[in-house]
Specification:
single chain, alpha/beta, Purple Acid Phosphatase, chain A, domain 2, 5'-nucleotidase,  domain 2, 17 helices
């Protein structure tokens, strides 16, 4: 009898302790990176020290996330993806070193190709979450849709989603068998399901989608983080990326609940940080204090630098390979001022290179500066300079367009405020009239060859695959095409990435002078 009483007393004490664990307020810290694009050296070394300090304070109450676009953007990444394919990938080593709590998938991670991203994710211990990337054959998620983490008696659910417009930007050969479902519809399906099935104390979204705007159409919105926060009840914090814009904000949703959103911006210069207190008692209350931490001003973590020294040395050796000599300096930020050597050299190359690789001779070229605020100095160019010039593994395409569509395309382009989306043309002579209303600013005078330009005639236009498949909205919003039309208009695509093609071409004509073509002007 005495033993029975002792057991009962122990059980009561154990129950009281368990209840106290779940009713006592718990404070968590969420740290987020996004759109790193392979910048794993200086900024990340500084971030490593900050994460170490925060983890010493919060222990397992620290959650570290990334919201995509880490597999394209630097020579070191390219080396790890395509040259040193036997060792552990730089990206897998990076996420596991900290370790990250979970990551989601970005469009540039898919564009790296299934061979690359499958290898990286196999090597990672860090969970990879994305609910709306599905098998085309079955509709089932290709990745784990969400995970539940238990921290001091609380359940933290984390859901991953990706902008579906990756299906327009990335060729099917790089993502065989995959479909990308509407991010809005996926949020409306998964968030209530997680709430009902898991009953989490906190639900966090890791979304590779911008705040709002961007491409639309049958796929839904390109950038839908804010829409989800406002219209889908049940989510508490959205960590998002894709648009490279720093932001910390909150909205009051349809249920009059506060939903926080944060985006640290690109390249690891900042961390987004949210301190979250989960209250005790029956009424679920969440207090959030969120902001950005500028880690670029912090001291680099020496242990991180030592552990990644091999990767960084491989990258330096690889990127210092000489390619060609250039006779004048190129600057990307001057593209808004008029014809520039940065873009016109791309035009020159696209028109000539396409003619060397196919019997279809393009008459017109579209191109933009794919890197903002960059300078490539005259003199010896190294492999790293071509990564500055062409940061992504796009291919080269030829599409069929009417003269009317070409003018519409340029009308759309001249309204863009980002150098990446400000396309110009070569092969035609035209004027952009700044004082005319939108839609009436572009006047095409004729072909650069001296022949007349006709709105009704069909032309072969050379451009990169990102544009040819709808990237930037030039074809979808500017011309009203859909993905099927864009696909049908492509009559040739290079089997080799555009960066490698240009390296070979410039090496063959070294030393080269990237003089502006002056095929257009402002009035």
């Amino acid at each position: 009898m005495k033993r029975f009483g002792t057991i009962c007393a122990f059980c009561v004490l154990f129950l009281v302790l368990c209840l106290s664990c779940t009713t006592k307020p718990v404070t968590l810290v969420v740290l987020q990176t996004t759109d790193l694009h392979g910048r794993f050296d200086t900024s990340m070394a500084a971030m490593a020290g900050y994460v170490r300090e925060q983890r010493s304070v919060y222990g397992n109450r620290l959650l570290l996330f990334d919201t995509g676009d880490y597999l394209q953007g630097t020579p070191g990444l390219y080396y790890s993806s395509h040259v040193d394919t036997a060792g552990k990938h730089l990206c897998a080593a990076f996420f596991d070193w900290f370790p990250y709590t979970a990551v989601t998938v970005g469009n540039h991670d898919i564009e790296a190709g299934m061979t690359v991203f499958s290898r990286v994710y196999r090597q990672m211990a860090t969970p990879v979450l994305s609910a709306n990337i599905v098998h085309k054959s079955s509709g089932e998620p290709f990745f784990t849709p969400y995970r539940v983490f238990r921290i001091q008696g609380r359940k933290i659910a984390v859901l991953g989603l990706l902008t579906p417009h990756v299906s327009s930007w990335v060729a099917e050969r790089l993502r065989p068998g995959l479909e990308f479902q509407s991010i809005e519809a996926s949020a409306k399906y998964w968030i209530p399901l997680i709430r009902e099935r898991e009953k989490p104390d906190l639900l966090i979204g890791l979304f590779h989608t911008g705040a709002q705007g961007g491409a639309g159409g049958p796929l839904g919105s390109e950038n839908a983080a804010r829409w989800i926060a406002e219209h889908v009840n049940g989510i508490d914090l959205i960590c998002y990326g894709h648009d490279h814009r720093q932001a910390v904000d909150y909205v009051v949703n349809v249920n009059q609940d506060t939903v926080w959103l944060m985006n640290p911006g690109a390249y690891g210069k900042n961390l987004a940080r949210a301190e979250i207190t989960l209250s005790s008692g029956k009424n679920r209350q969440i207090r959030v204090h969120a902001g950005l931490v500028n880690v670029s001003v912090l001291e680099p973590d020496q242990e991180y630098l030592e552990d990644f020294a091999r990767y960084f040395q491989q990258a330096r050796t690889y990127e210092q390979q000489p390619v060609a000599e250039m006779l004048s300096t190129m600057k990307s930020h001057v593209v808004f001022e008029g014809p520039s050597s940065w873009v016109d050299e791309i035009h020159r190359g696209q028109l000539e290179i396409a003619g060397l690789h196919t019997d279809i001779l393009p008459e017109i070229s579209f191109a933009s500066a794919l890197t903002s605020n960059a300078v490539i100095e005259k003199g010896q160019l190294y492999l790293k300079d071509f990564f500055t010039w062409f940061p992504y593994e796009n291919s080269l395409c030829i599409v069929v367009m009417t003269g009317h569509e070409i003018r519409q395309y340029l009308e759309y382009s001249c309204e863009q405020t980002s150098v990446i989306d400000f396309d110009t043309a070569a092969g035609i002579l035209y004027t952009v009239y700044r004082d005319r209303p939108a839609g009436e600013r572009v006047e095409i005078h004729g072909l650069a060859s001296g022949f007349d330009f006709s709105p009704e005639r069909k032309y072969h236009v050379v451009l990169n695959s990102y544009r040819a498949q709808g990237g930037g909205g030039h074809l979808f919003r500017g011309l009203g095409w859909d993905a099927s039309t864009a696909k049908d208009r492509i009559v040739w695509e290079s089997p080799t990435e555009i960066r490698k093609i240009f390296m070979q071409w410039e090496a063959s004509r070294s030393p080269f002078d990237p003089a502006p073509l002056n095929h257009w002007k402002y009035q």
